[in-house]
Write a structure and sequence with these properties.
Length: 319
């Protein structure tokens, strides 16, 4: 039997690279596309020699011609850290609009299954807690986060439209905060930043009073959820995330303790439109996919630590 060919757009990014590795390990042929805005070749270095893996530097927002047949397309191609997308707002909007349309056209051409990684950001600063898929959200369309939030909302509408127009098997998952090895130490998100700061004894920068909450999912759990969704007959949207909810202050304390760091907490200004609380309702994922996260925040932080230690070691060698 021919091996399934799977395209992972954004495959050199944090979650994308873990997904590529899992799919190659499961015996599929994986084509990884990335424009390397936030993805890094270092994330996929171990896969480069594998005959079931190929990487092509590709920007999904530009015209591309692709003649091969693919069976499945996972789309993770979008800058996801608030600092990153605020530095490239136009590219972020285009990735979720023109880029998603280009990939959907490819899916129609290949009759491939398509999975879009949407986001908890479609709920904005939610007025309903925890967030269920049926909640329509509270998003500022002209704020600092809107290029990401509204882009992802537009992408959901595009996918819904393609499904109806072309009977495409196009699916949506909404990913909540995810962390683990290969999230770049300076990408600006809370866990990668706090681990790097704690390991180097620098102040741990908590924005605002730190009482805002997030729910953090370890990356291997997230990858399992993505694959189960692709295999299922469901279209979603389905939330994927770990419902364990923590204040950012508590997270900072946990990390300082885990690292046995001398770092102090430093409170900085809260960025505009920072959601006050966030926690996924994963009833649908449990019922329809048989999925729920297995790794607690403390376990996941321990599993992440060696990566950040090695990143800091190699950075100190360079400087
Ligand atoms: N945060 C913080 N210090 C940092 C980075 C983030 O206090 O150095 C806060 C941020 O304001 C937000 C939460 O941590 O309330 C999660 O931020 P992150 O960027 O990881 O993800 P978001 O959920 O905002 O997309």
């Amino acid at each position: 039997m021919r091996k399934k060919i799977i395209l992972v757009a954004g495959g050199a990014g944090f979650i994308g690279s873990h997904l590529c590795r899992r799919l190659v390990g499961d015996g599929y042929k994986v084509i990884c596309w990335d424009n390397l805005y936030s993805g890094r070749l270092e994330n996929i270095a171990d896969l480069r020699g594998n005959s079931n893996f190929s990487f092509v530097k590709t920007d999904i927002t530009k015209k591309f011609s692709f003649k091969n047949k693919v069976d499945e397309i996972y789309n993770l191609a979008c800058i996801a850290s608030p600092g990153g997308y605020q530095r490239r707002p136009l590219e972020t909007l285009l990735a979720s609009s023109v880029g998603v349309k280009n990939l959907l056209d490819l899916a129609v051409q290949c009759k491939a299954k398509f999975l879009q990684t949407s986001t908890s950001e479609v709920y904005g600063d939610p007025l309903v807690h925890p967030q269920k898929e049926s909640y329509w959200g509270n998003v500022n369309p002209v704020g600092e986060r809107s290029c990401y939030d509204e882009g992802k909302r537009f992408a959901e509408s595009l996918i819904y439209t393609y499904r109806n127009l072309y009977k495409l098997e196009a699916k949506i998952v909404r990913i909540f905060n995810t962390y683990g090895p290969k999230m770049h130490p300076s990408d600006g998100r809370a866990i990668s930043t706090f681990l790097s700061q704690a390991l180097t004894g620098k102040p741990v920068t908590v924005f605002g009073d730190g009482l805002q909450t997030r729910s953090f999912c370890y990356v291997s759990d997230m990858v399992s959820g993505l694959i189960l969704m692709m295999k299922s007959r469901e279209f979603g949207p389905i939330n994927l995330g770990n419902p364990g909810e923590f204040t950012i202050l508590k997270l900072a304390g946990l990390i300082v303790k885990l690292v046995r760091s001398s770092s102090q907490i430093a409170h900085l200004d809260l960025p505009a439109d920072d959601p006050v609380k966030r926690k996924p309702d994963i009833t649908l994922a449990k019922k329809l996919l048989g999925w729920q996260p297995k790794i607690s925040l403390e376990e996941g932080l321990k599993l992440s630590l060696p990566y950040y230690q090695s990143q800091i070691k190699s950075r100190s060698k360079v400087s």
